Amino acid sequence: MIRLRRFTLAGCLLLTTVALASTLKSVLSFDLPGPTGKRFDYLTIDYDDHYLLSAHLAAGLLYVIDLRTNQVVKAISDTPGAEGVEFVPELKKVYTSNAGDNTIGVIDLKQMKVVKKLPTEAKPDGSAYAAPFHKLYVSDERTRWSDDIALENVKAITEWLLTLSIGGLSSPVKGMS
Predict the structure, then answer these.
(1) Which of 82, 142, 154, 155 is least enclosed, having the fewest CB within 10 Å?
(2) CATH architecture classification, 36-172
(3) How far, in Å, CA of 98 to CA of 159, rounded?
(4) Are 62 and 82 within 8 A, CB to CB?
């Protein structure tokens, strides 16, 4: 009896998995420039301008793709080893976690280029933007540290405060004071 229940449960789980998997389908496919067979990482969307922002880690590129036309608007370079990518709507800026040179790239979408690089301790990876606090949080790949970037004066950003949090303590990151 127990064996029959296990078989029934396993069968139900398998059918559920197959049913859910069958709902996924390809709706669109298009080619991107850059080297083939190289790893992509994070994606995010700029809903205001209808851009898909795609980090091409191995190529050191950030693709800006127009979701209305499915065309690459720009392949932004100078994002070596870009892993994380986060869009901050009120600034029209994109932040890339560049593991290749241990920086956070600041990309102005109006200019479609890297306008600043913020140093980090090592191998920045995932990121999340907390809009109510105007802060971007970036972690390293091994979660030993996280950068807390306070985006002060959202309408006219002129200074960046970058602190490194280690065990609940904050200290300025090298080169930033």
Answers:
(1) 155
(2) 7 Propeller (2.130)
(3) 20
(4) yes
